[in-house]
Amino acid sequence: MSSISKQPPLGEALELELRISEDSPIEQTPQPRWMRDSRHHHRRFTWRSILFGAFCLYALYCFIRGSPLFASPLPSYTGPYGVGAVDLEVPLSGGPERVVDAAVKSTGQPAFEVETLLATVYYPTDRHFRSRKPRYPWIPRPISLTAQGYARVAGVENFLTRPIFTFGLWAVGGAVSIPAEVDAPLLNGEKGLEAFPVTVFSHGDVSSRTDYTNFLGELASRGHVALAIEHRDGSGPGSIVKTSAGSPGRQVLPLRPSDIDLDLDRDAFKRAQLAFRDVEFHAAVDLLHAITNGTPIPNTRDPITTLPSWAGRLNTTLLTLAGHSFGATGALQALTTLSSSPAAGLILDPGKSSGPLNPNATVPILVVHSNSWSRTVSPFYNRPHFDTVRDLVRAIPAPSWFLTSIGTAHPSVTDAPLLEPLLLSWTTGANLDTKEALREYVRVADDFSLFVRGGDERGILVQKTTHQLYGEWVSEEREEEFPRDLARLWEVHVTPEDQTRPMGRPVEL
Ligand SMILES: *[C@@H]1O[C@H](CO)[C@@H](O)[C@H](O)[C@H]1NC(C)=O
Ligand SMILES: *[C@@H]1O[C@H](CO)[C@@H](O)[C@H](O)[C@H]1NC(C)=O
Fold first, then answer.
1. How many domains does the chain have?
2. Which of 131, 305, 413, 473 has the greatest number of CB atoms lying within 10 Å of its CB?
């Protein structure tokens, strides 16, 4: 139980922990998968539930004192353009697609049938445009569904915890909204920006489409159209599937292998989720094509008006597939399964516990690890995870990079640390200022996009390798010449130059 005394006695820690739990600090202990036993999991749920108790007390305390739990609202975006957002839910054009024949025991509903795609699209708009529509809430409604999902993930769901979690979540983030203009018109074309490059973004485990709004909004404010998928594969805290406008919809809650009527081990279960996510990736790309082709979009969410004017305004040949954690694992896979070839992959902290990484992409990829992701040595199919990622990037038959962002932790690219900046350093040991960390992620994603568009390299992408192994300079000369302000932020593990050369030194396994 000593882990509790090291944590802040606040439930926000837990909130974050749950949001990032695919690869939570506990999962990162260098202990092979086959050695983990059920006792380990049991203990984890117990200390989680104790933290939750502490959190609820704290929430109550803040409520009585009238002070907000989250110190700061989400900041506005810093690029040259304003940012618009639209929620879209679109039934699959060919009808529901069942990827694995299994039902949820408690409801009898299919566990792995994709009926619709739900996504939020962030896009550039005029800086001065102000929408009359209310901003989207950061926690998708109804809050009680999300709360029930978190309680279930923590293994403490019952009639008593549900209202407590709902209250806690409402107190933490109920008032936070996403600072993008809902249903704003797409930015007018100007020379060189007739059609915008597009990115499809996939979230990590125990997350939703609203967990990366700052990162995606920042890209939109720099001239990208970014579509954030909400996966309904049982990996999110809670979501509602609406197959037609006006229908109440079907609730989707987190799923574990034991919740379905098919005997799948953990790996097979992850594969089923990945296959589900792959269908959603395809649907997202189809949706972007439909929008730019001017096809009417059968949206089942709140009506929006801006889409018809987007015809011809998306450059779908400049399609980047992106993701974080489990989502990065999915993006690597989708890069190989789409029929119309995407242009690039943006891979942030590819999963450690979400199954093997697909090595078969043939387009440029940029892999960015957070510091804690690289620093923690994790066994991954009999090799260190870091080495697997490095060798994967080296072998991609297109110019690709692998970098570590120093001073960051796994959730640095999500919104959570922006809402409670202290949170991240307390819980994960990240030390780079939250906003600076996010700015670096946005900058490198934008630099990579420039490269994909025209082959120009700038920023950290012009730098040669500094560290083939995490934390070890390739040479003293390189350490001398690498600019200090960059050394504070980055380690460069693979560049296009390395992809054509044998390794400079033997790899220690
Ligand atoms: C990658 O390609 C190889 C060779 O074609 C194939 O054997 C392997 O199954 C592929 N991996 C995945 C994950 O699809
Ligand atoms: C899409 O981008 C590519 C590369 O920059 C460019 O050659 C092409 O003309 C663009 N297409 C549209 C429709 O703007």
1. 1
2. 413
